[in-house]
Specification:
Strand order of the largest sheet: 2-1-3-4
CATH topology of the domain at 306-504: MetI-like fold
Order of helices and strands: EEHEEEHHHHEHHEEHHHHHHHHHHH
Helix content: 40-55%
Number of helices: 18
CATH class of the domain at 306-504: Mainly Alpha
Structural class: alpha+beta
Strand content: 5-15%
Length: 512
């Protein structure tokens, strides 16, 4: 049972003027009743449903569900949102079983119950697919099953206008023998026993009036039964491609495209080396800038005697330690800034200011605190990447679609740890991966800056040794090694992870 007594809701607007969306709403809905709330756009329908769901708090009055005051979302009041609320990092089966998982139901049982619901909309063979791999109608049907399988309870419909195909699938699954038309006045009113509470608009029917709703014409419930099954309002025809390439031919084309790109890059680098060597011989740069052959010879000698390899491993060890620390600290700070407005407006403001400070500026402090050793280098490298990671993490958490959080709260995750690690962290992963790529680049800059002064074995120390000896070929060799390491790590690690995550989340198409 749902009861509203004197409910009102006012939203603050710019200029200090409040907008009253609801005022003096009084009505009661009994168990098992089907109710529609109708009115013009902006009259407070969605606000009313959010109050009943517990997603918002009323400024005035009292909202009760099953005899208890509504203070937070809960699994006894499920909302079918206007937009899809499927989690892109979960399969169709995992999405449908998400609410059952929050109830503590075992894995085997929730899989069986979820599959039963999935089969009602003929998506059984797509249960292990991700939402972006489904068509729009299939994705909508999966969202409907994600809520229908949750069990008995009150439900609220986000809008009157729904896709006809989606409504018919849901109706057929529930055994509703009717046609759900796509017009605003037909869809929700059609199944309603009465459209709400207030003044009478027809025999045995009442109408809920949010603020401003009485200024528009009320719709009249029209029941249209067409036999024992739902009849689609429209038919979607699918036209196939005129050309159907065999799978072997498509694979060959993808491989040839990849090889073409690789050869193009290789030829460009070869051309660049030829131009470099030619310019050295014709312009007589001398010792001030080495030739391509001198640089390659220095690289070969450094690898043979082990000096270059040892320095590379030393730098990689430092940057990996610093990068791990910066990710841990940065993500923690970003989450705190996103969840706490006070911290965001105080400490978050300081972090933004510190990000503009070059990491090398902290080197004198590091030398005083730690001395000329690895601790000083790791410190400034961590500082160089932490602020970038913190800002990226904050943006990732802040930009999570609110519908993901609302949907999870509907299913009983609450606002605590379960909501954080089951929804918020997975939803922010694309932004976190981008932040990690940026932090890795900033970490390399800080690392080399610190190694130029600190003692030890690393690429920065080797670069400083080349400067003191006037060996420009060694200096340029170190610069190229750093560039190669950065490119390899970015393309073979971060970019691959980013591409896979974006493809999984449906944010980009899969690459060949």
């Amino acid at each position: 049972m749902i009861r509203l007594e004197g409910v009102g809701k006012t939203f603050a607007q710019r200029g200090g003027v409040g907008y009253t969306a609801l005022e003096d709403i009084d009505f009661e809905i009994g168990r098992g009743e089907f109710v529609s709330v109708l009115g013009p756009s902006g009259c407070g329908k969605s606000t009313l449903l959010n109050l009943v769901a517990g997603l918002e708090r009323a400024d005035r009055g009292r909202v009760e569900a099953n005899g208890k005051v509504v203070t937070a979302p809960g699994p006894d009041r499920i909302v079918v949102f206007q937009d899809h609320a499927l989690y892109p990092w979960l399969t169709v089966l995992e999405n449908v079983a998400f609410g059952l998982k929050q109830k503590g139901i075992g894995k085997k049982e929730r899989r069986e119950r979820a599959m039963e619901q999935i089969r009602t909309v003929h998506l059984g063979k797509f249960a292990d697919r991700y939402p972006h791999e489904l068509s729009g109608g299939d994705e909508a049907a999966g969202g409907d099953r994600a809520r229908a399988r949750h069990g008995p309870g009150d439900s609220a419909h986000g809008r009157a206008v729904r896709r006809a195909g989606r409504a018919d699938e849901a109706a057929a699954a529930q055994g509703v023998g009717a046609d759900l038309a796509e017009h605003a006045e037909d869809d929700p009113v059609y199944h309603a026993q009465h459209p709400g509470g207030g003044h009478a608009v027809g025999a045995g029917a009442r109408h809920v009036h949010p603020a401003g709703a009485d200024q528009k014409k009320s719709f009249v419930c029209r029941r249209r039964v067409r036999g024992s099954r739902a009849i689609p309002c429209c038919t979607i025809s699918r036209v196939g491609s005129w050309i159907h390439w065999p799978p072997s031919w498509r694979r060959w084309r993808r491989r040839s495209t990849a090889m073409t790109t690789l050869w193009r890059k290789a030829l460009f680098l070869l051309l660049l080396l030829i131009i470099w060597e030619t310019a050295y011989r014709t312009m007589h740069w001398g010792w001030r800038f080495p030739s391509a052959l001198q640089t390659m010879r220095t690289f070969y000698d450094g690898m043979v005697d082990g000096q270059l390899l040892k320095a590379t491993l030393g730098s990689l060890r430092r940057i990996l330690v610093a990068f791990a620390l910066s990710c841990a600290i940065g993500v923690t700070l970003g989450v705190l800034f996103a969840r706490s407005r006070l911290l965001d407006e105080t400490f978050g403001f300081v972090v933004v200011a510190l990000q503009t400070v070059p990491s090398i500026a902290w080197l004198p402090f590091a030398i005083i605190w730690f001395g000329l050793n690895d601790f000083a280098v790791v410190f400034i490298t961590t500082i160089g990447a932490t602020w970038t990671m913190a800002i990226a993490s904050r943006s990732g958490i802040k930009n999570i679609p609110p519908i993901y959080v609302k949907s999870a709260q509907m299913f009983g995750t609450g606002r605590g740890l379960r909501l954080f690690y089951q929804v918020m962290v997975p939803a922010a992963i694309p932004q976190l991966i981008t932040g990690m790529r940026m932090a890795w680049a900033f970490a390399w800059r800080a690392l080399v800056s610190g190694e130029l002064i600190a003692r030890g074995v690393g690429l920065g120390q080797l670069l400083e040794e080349g400067r003191s000896l006037g060996d420009t070929s060694l200096m340029l060799c170190i610069v190229l090694v750093i560039a190669i390491l950065g490119t390899i790590s970015d393309h073979l690690v971060f970019k691959r992870i980013e591409d896979r995550v974006l493809t999984l989340y449906g944010l980009q198409t899969a690459k060949a």
